[in-house]
Structure formats: C-alpha cells, structure tokens
Write a structure and sequence with these properties.
about 70 residues; mainly alpha; 434 Repressor (Amino-terminal Domain); globular; HTH cro/C1-type domain-containing protein; Lambda_DNA-bd_dom_sf; DNA binding; DNA-binding; Cro/C1-type_HTH
Length: about 70
Amino acid sequence: MQYIKRIRELREDNDYTQREVAALLSVGQRTYADYEYGKTRIPLDSMIVLAKFYNVDMNYICGISNVKNSFPKK
C-alpha cells in the first residue's frame, strides 16, 4: 500500500496538518489519520481530490511511478 506513505509525504512536504487535509476531504482528523496509518482504506474519490490538491497524478500517489507528473487537465 504505497499510497499510505505517499499521502503522508505529500502532506508533510506541503506543511499541512492532518486536520487541514481532513477538512479538505470532509472527514474528521481521526479518519484521515486512519488513512495515513493504513487502518482504513482511503476512498477513490478522496484519492482523486488529494491528487488534484497536490497537483500530482494518480500514478504517483498510488506508487506506480516515482515521477511527480502534474494532475491531468481536461
């Protein structure tokens, strides 16, 4: 589950708290913490929101690629 490490690294690299990212996803801080610790799987729609927010593609967040490509624009 590479995404667990990636969502935490992205949050920390951008100086956001768990509470701030949780608010973005409309979940509680404890729920978001559970995502980062792998206790609860993060829903796909929340993963997409994070990819857009951090401007990285889903391949990076999921650990398929180590290259931080920008989130695709329509």
